[in-house]
Specification:
8 strands, Ureohydrolase_dom_sf, Arginase, Chain A, HDACs, alpha/beta, His_deacetylse_dom_sf, 8-stranded parallel beta sheet, 300 residues, single chain, Histone deacetylase
Length: 300
């Protein structure tokens, strides 16, 4: 059975000006339940991640400041909103959901977190609405527990996974692949193992051709035993922040390429959802739901 991490705190309202993007975390599982793609048995509610697991990835002082809500105002501005206890708890549950998802993926081939993809958080900083890097923490958890030796992180959010790249820059067991807008946030990029920087307004055919070549290269270079996939839908032409020109059909084909590559090679896959900022919430929800629909077609 495909398992999906979800908790009511995922849809916790942010301060004014940030609430709209949070709606999807409630609407996506609601839509999947309504259409019958999933039922309640597919959903699980994650607990809080343990501190010792966080410290495999994040600096102790940075984590202490998050935990105690003492992060300096400048660093809170870098994150994009003021800290509060519920937002920190939300991040702890998201991270544990991704860790739990690795176990379900190893057992069933694939698992989801209905949130996550907090790839702008580095070892000692938060940024771009990201406090803790859920997939990086989960990758380090797998390595620390000697569950796998070779991991591939496929980041197809429109924004570079700068935090993930920084965390694993000296870790040969984790291969980081980011395909992102060249002139988009973050404006100071880190160096992934494989970066593909895209020009603004790139369309379906060119994007998918680049992905086909570079996804194959990423698999060949990493020979992974486990894959993390960040499936942001801010690549859509309708996205307010993305600057690319992909249709929903191309976004779905992008997902198919990643999922099919993992399935054909027998490599377990955990998916976190990443960004999506289209003006119409329906576009965000439908594009994300396509990722789940594909997974249920391919893996069940």
């Amino acid at each position: 059975m495909i398992k999906i991490a979800w908790h009511p705190l995922y849809a916790h309202p942010l301060p004014e000006g940030h609430r709209f993007p949070m709606l999807k975390y409630e609407l996506i599982p609601g839509q999947l339940l309504h259409e019958g793609t999933i039922d309640q048995n597919n959903l699980f509610s994650p607990n809080l991640v343990d501190e010792d697991i966080i410290l495999l990835t994040h600096d102790a002082n940075y984590w202490r400041q998050l935990r105690e809500l003492t992060l300096p105002p400048k660093e809170q501005r870098r994150i994009g909103f003021p800290l509060n206890a519920q937002l920190v708890e939300r991040e702890l549950r998201i991270t544990q959901g991704t860790i739990d998802g690795t176990g379900y993926a190893i057992k069933n081939g694939i698992a989801f977190n209905a949130a996550g993809g907090t790839h702008h958080s580095g070892s000692n900083w938060g940024e771009g609405f990201c406090l803790l890097n859920d997939q990086a923490i989960a990758a380090n958890y797998l390595i620390n527990k000697n569950l796998v030796d070779r991991i591939l992180i496929v980041d197809l959010d429109v924004h570079q996974g700068n935090g993930t790249a920084e965390i694993f820059r000296n870790e040969p067991r984790v291969f980081t692949f980011s395909m992102h807008g060249d002139k988009n946030f973050p404006f100071r990029k880190e160096i992934s193992d494989l970066d593909v920087a895209l020009e603004d307004h790139i369309g379906d055919d060119e994007y998918l051709s680049l992905l086909e070549v570079n996804l194959q290269q990423a698999f060949e270079k990493s020979n992974p035993e486990f894959v993390f996939y960040l499936a942001g839908v801010d690549v859509l032409s309708t996205d307010k922040l993305g600057k690319l020109a992909l249709t929903k059909a191309a976004c779905k084909e992008r997902d198919r390429m990643v999922l099919q590559a993992c399935k054909s090679k027998g490599v377990p896959l955990q998916i976190s959802m990443g960004g999506g900022y289209s003006a119409d919430i329906k576009d965000i929800v439908d594009a994300h739901c396509n990722t789940y629909r594909l997974a249920f077609d391919l893996f069940t």
